[in-house]
Amino acid sequence: MISVYFETAVVFYLLAVLAVIALAGACNAIRRRGMRTEPMPTRIFSCSKCAHPYLDNHELERSSCPRCGTVNEPQRF
Ligand SMILES: [Zn+2]
Fold it and tell me: What's this model's pTM, rounded to 2 decimal places?
């Protein structure tokens, strides 16, 4: 049988518990990062031909309507 000091066994036990907690935290962080969906900045466009409202990239000055293909400017409020 292997003889181990009590203090050494306690230290190894605590290290094992800390390792399990750290591993669980890392797995949780990785899982949360995969689930995170950040909203893309968009602009509201309204088609001048068919009046279809839609969203598109905020950097675009003009966007094609997904229904009829007419090029539109973003709505200004
Ligand atoms: Zn349209």
Answer: 0.50
